[in-house]
Amino acid sequence: MDWQVYLYGIQWDDGKGEYDVSELPENLCVTIDDHDAEDEKQAIELALTEATDEFGSLIASTEQITVK
Fold first, then answer.
1. pLDDT tens-digit map of 9-58
2. How far apart (Å, rounded) are the C-alpha atoms in residues 17 and 33?
3. Which of 11, 13, 35, 60 has fewest C-beta within 10 Å?
4. Per-residue confidence at 6, pLDDT binned at 50, 70, 90?
5. Counting beta carbons within 10 angstroms of the beta carbon of residue 47, is it exposed (0 to 12), middle (13 to 18) or buried (19 or more)?
């Protein structure tokens, strides 16, 4: 079964005002293939990496992460 990683209240790293992150989403659901992650921790790490790669900005923080 694939992992569904929900990221809520994302604060994107704006490089101290250098980057415009206003258009980036505050909430995301990232699907991680169950063959890529053995447990919830690994699924979260992969989801954060995938979100960073997709949107080209680092995630500074999140309010909540839920894995289903």
1. 999 999 988 889 999 999 999 999 999 999 999 999 999 999 999 999 99
2. 35
3. 35
4. very high
5. buried
CB atoms closer than 10 angstroms to residue 43: 24
Average pLDDT, the chain: 95
Q: Nearest to residue 62, comparing CAs of 16, 15, 26?
A: 26
Q: Which of 1, 12, 23 is nearest to 48 (CA)?
A: 12
Structure tokens at 14: 């704006």
pTM of the model: 0.91
The dihedral built from the CA positions of residue 52, 58, 59 and 65, taken in this order, carries a sign that is positive
**Token pair belonging to 47:** 């989801």
- What length does the chain have? 68
